[in-house]
Amino acid sequence: MEILIIRHGQAVDDAPDLGDAGRWLTGKGRKVTRRVARWLAKQKDRCPAAIWTSPLVRSVQTAEILAEAAELTDEVSVVAELSPSRDTAEILRLLAQHQGAQPLALVGHEPSLSALVTSLVGDIGWTGLKKSGVVAVSWDGRGPGVVRFALDLKAMKTVNPVKEAQQQAPRSR
């Protein structure tokens, strides 16, 4: 299974009377997310064929931008298990049962997404996703998965997060 794990775009800091769940994307958040969505849509092996999102407004907005760029005709699926602070085992169970289109994009929140990556591929020493960030994982539903790439948002190119983490780790003497 090919999985694109995507953090929502930059959101407003405060949504009076709406709480954290009601926070929406800023103009910058929409702009960066559109750029990421266009980049993903350029190649079939990284273009989302289906999208699951957290129910929080900023994630739904991010998912809708991705769906538009990918020209998806199916609806974006809101999946409660992608909500912040949910148990990673819940989303792993859903992923293991998924028989649909791939790559499957999961849109959600930190630190839950980093915990999901660790659950899928093991501890690679990776520091996590920035807003609008993407990491792609191949997973067979049973054993450890493989990180295919992460997106460097500044350069808009793929990087190997495992290699990056190894280079940043302090060397023992």
Polypeptide structure, described:
The structure is a single chain. This protein has 173 residues and is α/β, with parallel strands linked by helices. It has a single domain, classed as Phosphoglycerate mutase-like (Rossmann fold), CATH 3.40.50. It has 5 helices and 7 strands. Strands 3-2-4-1-5-6-7 form a 7-stranded mixed β-sheet, sandwiched between helices. Helix 3 crosses helix 4. It is globular.
Strand-helix topology:
Blueprint: E1 2-7, H1 27-41, E2 50-53, H2 57-70, E3 77-78, H3 88-97, E4 104-108, H4 112-121, E5 134-138, E6 146-152, E7 157-159, H5 161-168
Helix pairs in contact: 1-2, 3-4
CATH hierarchy: architecture: 3-Layer(aba) Sandwich
Which class best fits the helix and strand makeup?
A: alpha/beta
Overall morphology:
globular
State the total count of DSSP E strands: 7
Sheet having the most strands: 7 strands, mixed
